Amino acid sequence: MNTIFKINYKISPYLIILFAISIFIDVAVLLAEKLAAQDCGQILGKEAGFYWLLAHQPWTWFSFVLTAVQFVVWRNLLKYVQLTLACCISSIAYPLTTLAAMLLFKGNIQAIEWLGIGLVTVGIIIANTEKAKA
Amino acid sequence: MNVILLIAISITVVVETLEQLMFKASAKYEKFRHHFLICGIVLHVVQILSWFFVLALIPLNKAIIALAATYITIALASKCIFKEQVSKRGWVGILAIVAGLTLITSTGL
Known about the structure:
The complex is a heterodimer of chains A (134) and B (109). Chain A has six helices and two strands. Chain A has a two-stranded antiparallel sheet with strand order 1-2. Chain A has one domain (3-133). Chain A has 134 residues and is mainly alpha-helical. By secondary structure, chain B is an all-alpha fold. Chain B has one domain. Helices cover 83% and strands 0% of the residues of chain B. In chain B, helix 1 (3-28) packs antiparallel against helix 2, helix 1 crosses helix 3 (60-81) and helix 3 (60-81) runs antiparallel to helix 4 (88-104). The longest helix of chain B has 26 residues, at 3-28. Chain B is flat. The two termini of chain B are 22 Å apart. The A-B interface holds A 47, 67, 71, 74-79, 82-85, 87-88, 91, 94-95, 97-98, 101, 110, 112-113, 115-128, 130 and B 20-21, 23-24, 26-28, 33, 37, 40-41, 44, 56, 71, 74-75, 78-79, 82, 84, 86-87, 89-90, 92-107, 109.
């Protein structure tokens, strides 16, 4: 094999930190929304009451604050990376949320979900790299 | 699939795409950064409302396919508006991500 994979754009420590914060916030927001929703009980037939309870959950407001921070981080990140590639990288938040949810809520990950996690990871690598001569 | 659900899903996909375009425009055009940022935030609120509406109609494992589709619409819109180049390899990666997200939520996230 005379080829290696090369990242499509200039990577810097600042960019890595921005991506790390952005992905961390994405995961934290999804988990906070889950925590807020599960404290509100059943939704079926009581949608209005559900949203009223949701608005009174600290986790809901915590997710809003994180989302506001995310707007700033994401905008700064897009100064350096194409929108398409940035969106691809941020999609790693979904597999990470699945793994975090497994640890936090003691759930199991099924084989098909592991396959999905693998596909997303491979997709991110493929989309953000190109083959280059070693 | 009823018409209301189809409209709700379409609005979610279009608004999510527009939201991301606004954030990119805010990063790209320094002079109008606040205008685009505010537009992006307003669109995010609209997107959340339409997303909740979709979730009220169908389960998350079906709804997520609509959200995953935005990776494709964002790539197409970025290509048209910001002249971003997406190679064949890039499209393969995006399709793998969409397929992966669909599998992750297939059992109900």
